[in-house]
Amino acid sequence: MAEQKGLLIVYTGPGKGKTTCALGTAFRAVGQGLRVLMVQFIKGSWHYGELDAAKMLGDDKFQILPMGRGFIKIGGAETDPEDARMVREAWEFGLRQIESGSYDLVILDEINYVISYKLLDPAEVVEALARRPEQVHVICTGRNAHPKLVEQADLVTEMREVKHPYTKGILAQRGIDY
Ligand code: ATP
Ligand code: MG
Questions:
Q1: In this predicted model, which residue has the larger pLDDT, 136 or 77?
Q2: Ligand 1 pocket, residue 157 CB under 6 Å
Q3: How many CB atoms lie within 10 A of CB 64?
């Protein structure tokens, strides 16, 4: 059997499919008996289908923790300290879980987005992830992945928008977008 080597994976780009790709990987991993955690940096308000689907699999197999509040106000001086605090808390929690040995795959959902809005220091993230236990896989999702993270990663896929129903005025669909 192949040796397990924890990969650092990045799903980024403007097209739809970053979080769903991470969820698909989680689904595959659970099937192989891996324990999976998804920490969500932004989500917290909408009720996403994956929260219930993960519960159906069982908390011991796939746990999703929304640690945001659905949106983040952007802009340096206007950054809400509450958003900064929640991001910090989610990052420190996620890192502890990566280091704990309790999970084989940890997904940091929308971490690229919060790094790009300067709510997290990219150097700190990259250094901490480089020091993680070597068998743990980590997936970072979100637009505008930082170049340092891209350089460090073993696998980077950029979603390119070819078409999106939103441009025709079609709103988010239950079971597809949430
Ligand atoms: P998904 O969660 O569907 O995989 P994503 O993770 O690639 O999407 P995000 O940047 O996290 O995309 O955006 C989250 C929301 O924005 C989702 O509801 C998604 O459908 C929507 N979205 C994603 N890409 C686009 C796009 N190119 N145009 C409009 N809406 C988009
Ligand atoms: Mg996403």
A1: 136
A2: no
A3: 22
What is the rounded distance in angstroms from the CA atom of residue 13 to the CA atom of residue 37? 23
pTM over 0.90: yes
Tokens (6 digits) for 82: 């509450």
Strand order, beta sheet including 137-141 = 62-66, 36-40, 105-109, 137-141, 8-12, 155-158
Q: Regarding beta strands 62-66 and 105-109, do their DSSP bridges make them parallel or antiparallel, or are they unpaired?
A: unpaired
In a domain, residue 114? The reply is yes
167 belongs to a structural domain = no
Domain membership flag for residue 21? yes
For residues 75 and 46, which has the higher predicted lDDT (pLDDT)?
46
Average pLDDT over residues 35-54: 91
Query: 15: CA distance to ligand 1 center in Å?
Result: 7
Tally of domains within the chain: 1
For residue 89, the enclosing domain spans 8-160
Residue 135 lies in a domain: yes
44 lines ligand 1 (CB under 6 A): no
